[in-house]
Amino acid sequence: MKSEVHVHEHVTVIELSGKVMGGPDATLFHGLVQENLGRGSRDFVIDLEHVDWVNSVGLGMLIAAQLTVQRAGGRIVLANVTNIESLLTITRLITVVETFDSQDQALAALQSGCKVI
Length: 117
Prior knowledge:
Blueprint: E1 2-8, E2 11-20, H1 24-38, E3 43-54, H2 56-71, E4 75-79, H3 85-90, E5 99-100, H4 103-112
Parallel strand pairs: 2-3, 3-4, 4-5
Antiparallel strand pairs: 1-2
Helix pairs in contact: 1-2
């Protein structure tokens, strides 16, 4: 897994690519989330456009990040989930994680404070 971090106004965007399988990837990802929370970021977009594959540990990594951010008073959403949408549907995570078709839509929702129901 590779990652890139960008900040747009008050929203941190973490773009992931490759295979998300937990292990060292989970440690790196959790560190990115914690580092940006420490800098005052509360809202996050996790862009999965270039993710080829996610295993169960990788899903757990995303859910753990969501819980960490929520406990800090923030919000985490997923963008560009097309490649893993069936996995999110099968595991029913699609019902508990906000998803958007594009990074721009996710950013707009977080910047406006709107929540998808």
